[in-house]
Every structure is written in structure tokens, then in C-alpha cells.
Amino acid sequence: WADPPASVPWIAYGQEAVDTPEHRAIAKTAADRSLVLLKNVQGTLPWAQHSVGGVLKRLAVLGPHANATAAMQGNYAGDAPFLISPCEGLAHFADVACIASSGCKVADTRLCWNASAAAAVAQADG
Questions:
Q1: Distance between CA atoms of residues 28 and 76, nearest Å
Q2: Beta partners for 58?
Q3: Is there a contact between 72 and 65 (Cβ–Cβ < 8 Å)?
Q4: Chain centroid to CA 47
Q5: Which residues partner with 101 through β-bridges?
Q6: Type and span of the H or E element at 67
């Protein structure tokens, strides 16, 4: 099912060719532009970087991938130079502590509210 290596010219590319500052900047721009806000109560969002820490100290992130790193790569076959979970990224961006709760399993299509999710929200500010 795979192409023979001789017909795949980029198979010889190393980390130095694919993990460049330019590529990281493009990836960051793509990530920034692909965020989807599900609810924006009282115009709280979007946040300016590091401006939230003065208002919020603890933020709850709910969902089965709140602390995911390797799972966030999907079927990408390369070795990522680093992995950052959604919780880690938000904590760094907004300068807050992140409280994560999986809430449910990835394949569960129901709204997953449980004691763990409720506890995370209770610990968060706002």
C-alpha cells in the first residue's frame, strides 16, 4: 500500500529540512487560525497573550484530549521535535494554571459530564 522509497523524494529529508523556524511559524499560524470557539459568554474571548493571568488564575480544560500529546499527532509518521498538550498550551499562552479533566472517552458521543469534570470546573476561576 505504500509507495516504493525510490518514488518518494522527500524520504531523504532530515530534521534539519523539516523542523525549521519558518516551518514552525507556518504551523503556529495554521494552529492560531484553526481554533474554534464554542461559547463566548460576556465577550471574554479572544484572550490577548498573557493578559488573562491578572483576571484568572486557574482554567479548566475538559475533554478526552485535554492532556494529550502523542495522540494529537494523528497519523503523522514523523518524530515531532516537541509535544504540547492543549492544557499546557493554554496555561503558557494565558499565564494560568490548567486543571484538566478527560470527562469521557474519545469514542463516547454523549455529553460527558462527571464528577471529575465537575471538580475541575469547581477549582477553576470564573
A1: 17
A2: 97
A3: yes
A4: 16
A5: 62
A6: none
Q: What is the DSSP string of 18-80?
A: HS-HHHHHHHHHHHHHH---S--GGG--SPPTT-GGGT-SEEEEESTTTT-SGGGGTT--S--
Residue 61, all three cell numbers: 480544560
118 vs 2, which has greater pLDDT?
A: 118
SS3 74: coil
**Secondary structure class of 75 (helix, strand, coil):** coil
Look up residue 36 and give its three cell numbers.
Answer: 474554534
Nearest to 90 by CA among 41, 118, 124, 42: 124
The span from the CA of 84 to the CA of 87, in Å, is: 8
Q: How does pLDDT run across 35-92, given as a tens digit for each residue?
A: 765 666 776 666 665 556 567 788 888 888 899 888 877 766 667 788 899 999 888 8
60, 71, 80: which is closest to 121 by C-alpha?
Answer: 60
Tell me how far apart the alpha carbons of residues 17 and 24 are, in angstroms, rounded to a whole number: 12
Rounded CA gap, 6 and 35, in Å? Answer: 38
Cβ 59 vs Cβ 98: under 8 Å: yes
